[in-house]
From TrEMBL:
GO terms for cellular component: plasma membrane. The lineage of its organism: Eukaryota, Metazoa, Chordata, Craniata, Vertebrata. The keyword DNA-binding does not apply. This is Olfactory receptor. Its main location: membrane.
Length: 286
C-alpha cells in the first residue's frame, strides 16, 4: 500500500482545457455552489415544514444528501487538478474517489427505486398508505438504499485495492474502477468479468422494483377517472423525470467505460462523462 500511495496518475483529459482552464475552474465552481445551495435549500424547506414530513419528501432529502456527497467527491478534485501544472492525482486519492463516485451512483439508483415503490403504494393503496409506509418501514428502506450499494460495491472493490499499479495515465477528468484496473501491473481481466456480474446486482433489483411499481400504477390508473389519472400522473412526473435524467447520464458513463469511444470528440466525451454527476443534482431539487 505504501508503494501505491507514492505513485500518481496523469489525468490526460485536462490537456484539452489547457487554454481556458481558469474559465473552466469558474464554471465548475459555480456548478458546485449551485448544487450545494439547491440541495441544502430543499432539505431545509422539508425539515422546517412539518406538513412536508412525508415518506416521499424524506426520500427526496436522502437523494439530495447523496447528490451533495457525489458532487463533493468530484468537483473540488476537478478544480484542484485544473489549477495544477502537471494534472496529476495521487493514487491514494484516485482509489478513494473511485469508491465515492461508484457508491454515489449506486445509491442514487437505489433511492430512485425506493421512491418508485413509494409512488406505487400511494397510488395503488391510498387508504393504507400511512400504515404501509410507517416510520419503521421508511427507516428500513432508507437503510437498504444506503447500505446495499456500499456493501455490494465494497465487496467488489476489495479486488481492485489489492492490485499494484504500473501505468500512470488516467484518460478522464476523474478516476473510475476500470481505468484503475487497466493501469495494474498484472492482467486482471477477471475484475472486468466480476464487474459485469456486479452491475446486475446493482441494477437489476432496482429496475425490477421500478418496472413493477409503474406497471401496477398503470393498471390501477386504467380504472380511474380522468381527474384521478391526472392527479396520479402529476404525482409521478417529478420522479419519472429524475429517473430518466439519471438513467441517461449513467448509460453515457457505462458505455464510455466499457467501449472504445476514441471516435467521439474529446469535448463530447468529457461532457457526457460529467452528465450523471452534475445535471441530476441540479435538476432534481428544482
Amino acid at each position: 500500500m505504501d508503494n501505491k500511495t507514492a505513485l500518481t496518475f496523469t489525468m490526460t483529459a485536462y490537456a484539452v482545457m489547457e487554454n481556458y482552464k481558469h474559465w473552466m475552474f469558474t464554471v465548475f465552481l459555480l456548478l458546485y455552489l449551485i448544487i450545494i445551495i439547491l440541495n441544502i435549500v430543499l432539505i431545509t424547506v422539508i425539515h422546517q415544514n412539518k406538513e412536508l414530513h412525508q415518506p416521499m419528501n424524506v426520500f427526496s432529502c436522502m437523494l439530495s444528501i447523496n447528490e451533495i456527497y457525489g458532487s463533493t467527491a468530484l468537483l473540488p478534485s476537478v478544480m484542484a487538478v485544473l489549477l495544477s501544472e502537471t494534472y496529476e492525482i495521487s493514487v491514494k486519492w484516485c482509489m478513494a474517489q473511485v469508491y465515492f463516485l461508484h457508491t454515489y451512483a449506486s445509491a442514487e439508483f437505489s433511492i430512485l427505486a425506493v421512491m418508485g415503490y413509494d409512488r406505487y403504494v400511494a397510488i395503488c393503496y391510498p387508504l393504507y398508505y400511512h400504515s404501509i409506509m410507517s416510520n419503521s418501514k421508511v427507516v428500513k428502506l432508507l437503510a437498504l438504499a444506503g447500505v446495499y450499494p456500499i456493501v455490494v460495491f465494497g465487496s467488489f472493490y476489495s479486488l481492485t485495492i489489492q492490485l499494484g499499479f504500473c501505468g500512470k495515465v488516467m484518460p478522464k477528468l476523474y478516476c473510475v474502477n476500470m481505468e484503475l484496473v487497466r493501469n495494474s501491473c498484472s492482467p486482471a481481466s477477471y475484475i472486468s468479468i466480476v464487474g459485469l456480474v456486479l452491475l446486475l446486482f446493482l441494477v437489476v433489483p432496482q429496475v425490477l422494483m421500478i418496472v413493477f411499481s409503474y406497471v401496477q400504477i398503470s393498471r390501477v390508473c386504467m380504472k380511474l377517472s380522468r381527474e384521478s389519472q391526472y392527479n396520479a400522473l402529476k404525482t409521478c412526473i417529478p420522479h419519472l423525470l429524475s429517473l430518466i435524467n439519471y438513467t441517461i447520464g449513467s448509460l453515457f458513463e457505462i458505455i464510455q467505460t466499457r467501449f472504445n469511444m476514441s471516435h467521439v470528440a474529446v469535448e463530447a466525451r468529457i461532457f457526457l462523462s460529467l452528465y450523471f454527476i452534475i445535471l441530476p443534482p441540479i435538476a432534481n431539487p428544482v
